[in-house]
Write a structure and sequence with these properties.
Number of helices: 3
CATH topology: Alpha-Beta Plaits
Strand order of the largest sheet: 2-3-1-4
Number of strands: 4
Structural class: alpha+beta
Strand content: 25-35%
Order of helices and strands: EHEEHHE
């Protein structure tokens, strides 16, 4: 498995706009690509204008094939094109170990 972490700094008070763009424009395109597994948008608590978008892919090749599509709406640069002043920094990681917690029982009643 491969993970791409994108640190995103938005202009003041634009985090809601970033969330909307990622949810309505970016991820619907990304999730249709072969090898895409999941994505999480993490909004920083102590800096409300900073977030991280973490995407999980089956392999680094899956992500590279996705980037080769060169569709602006499916690229991280497409997010920046929709929100002027956004700063992006991407890093890639091989996921060598993963563990999930035990399922939490549903409350009764």
């Amino acid at each position: 498995m491969y993970a791409q972490v994108t640190t995103i700094q938005v202009p003041m008070n634009k985090i809601g706009e970033l969330r909307r763009v990622i949810e309505t424009s970016y991820l619907p395109v990304v999730r249709k690509r072969p090898g895409f597994l999941a994505a999480y948008l993490l909004e920083q608590v102590d800096d409300p204008d900073c977030a991280q978008l973490i995407q999980f892919w089956g392999s680094q090749a899956d992500l590279e094939n996705f980037h080769r599509t060169e569709l602006l709406e499916s690229s991280i640069q497409g997010i920046a094109a929709q929100i002027p002043g956004v700063h992006l920094r991407r890093q890639g990681y091989l996921v060598r170990l993963a563990m999930r917690g035990a399922p939490v029982p549903e409350p009764v009643g």
